[in-house]
Every structure is written in C-alpha cells, then in structure tokens.
Amino acid sequence: MKPVRGALCALLCLASLPAFALSEQSQQQLQQLQNRWAHINYQLPAKQREAAFASLSTDAQQLLDTEPKAAELLIWRGIILSTYAGAKGGLGALDLVKQAKTSLEQALQLDAKALDGSAYTSLGSLYYQVPGWPIGFGDDGKAEALLKQALALNPNGIDPNYFYGDFLLREKRYAEAKAALEKAQQAPDRPGRALADQGRRLEIKALLEKLDGKLPRVSSTER
Q1: Which stretch is the leader sequence (predicted)?
Q2: What's the half-sphere exposure (Cβ side, CA atoms, 13 Å) at 147?
Q3: What is the rounded CA–CA span in Å between residue 114 and residue 110?
C-alpha cells in the first residue's frame, strides 16, 4: 500500500482494510512459510516432502494460533495442508484435504479478497482434484465457479490462470486450457516469490507440452 498524507486520507485508508490485518511480525513469518513451502514443493526430493510438509503444517498452525482471524494465515494453512495431502497420497490424505477445505472456507468468510482471492483459487483446485462422493467432496461444477471467482479478483495472476488451465485440460477443453496457461505464462513476477514463480512456470511449461498434439494443427493455407 502506498503511503498517503493527511488525517482524512489515513482514516479512509484504514476503513478499507480487512477487519483483521496481519501484524508486521506475522507478515514476516508468513513470508518465511511461503518461502519454505516453495523450497519443499520445488526443490526437495519427492520422498522427503511428506515429512517436510508435516513439519511446515505444524508451524503454520502455531502461527495461526497467534492470529486466528487472519485470512492470510488461514489461506496458507490450507495451501500447506493440501500440498501435504498431495505428498502423502492415498486415503490417508483425505483428512488433510478436509482440514484444508475448512481453513480456506474460513478465510473466505473473513476476507474473500485476501491475497488477491487466493482462497478461491486454492479451494477451487481442491474441488477438481479431490475424488467426488462417496469418497470425497470433489465437484467439477463448484471447482469452475470458484476458479472463475478467483480470476475475477486476480485476472492476470499466475496461480488462478494456471489452476484454471489445469482444470480445463482435465476437462478436455483444450483450446480454453491453452489460452489460460499462456496467460499464466505471461503473468508478472510476484515480489518475494521468485522460487515459487520459477517452479510454477515449469509446471505451466509441462502442461503446455502436454497440450501439444491435442489441438488441431493449423495448415499454412488456413493461416
């Protein structure tokens, strides 16, 4: 947020803040969680990730205990739990994704716009990756609705476009998937998230390569 001058401007600015803004110390700790998450997710060998995410989820909960009404911390607890579930795999991961879902829903109730609508992105990704009834709560219709809400808040963001592209690819809506993934590829870098952006761009590249061959070729006479 840019600094403003004048008492009136300051009051107006404060009035626009969410009800529970993170303290400076919690902001620093949140950034540490984000950096550790990126390191685990993109740099650690796969066999080491489950234990590392388990430890990180404990630290996220401890931080959340200090500010339980902080939507940003609830979002990141949800992200960490969902990636922990992915590393764990199997039926044992279902309890973790349910906890992640609850955390993200709580974040939406507190401040749906926190972190540019990241709760919508993460919750939407859970809905299309988790099995449906009777095993889990997966629902492709809800997934798409949530991802579109995320894009409405952050239309140029790397994550909402990446996850929407991944969703569309799984739905075999290949032309739409390509458009979303190319938009994700062009997203601006996020301050302080260099490692996460680097890892995400590699994932985008992999999905675009997967798409290659699924779309009809355009001949030179059709161009």
Answers
A1: 1-21
A2: 25
A3: 9
Helix axes 140-153, 118-129, angle to 10 degrees: 160
Q: What is the CA radius of gyration of the chain?
A: 19
Distance CA 115, CA 170 (A): 26
First-to-last alpha carbon distance for the chain, in angstroms, is: 46
Closest to 55 (Cα-Cα) out of 75, 35, 27, 81: 81
What pLDDT is stored for residue 217 in this prediction?
61
pTM here?
Answer: 0.87
- pLDDT at residue 23 in the model: 84
CB 105 within 8 A of CB 149: no
Q: What is the mean pLDDT of each run of 10 residues along the chain (223 residues)?
A: 38 34 87 97 97 98 95 98 95 93 98 97 97 92 98 98 98 97 97 96 97 67 42
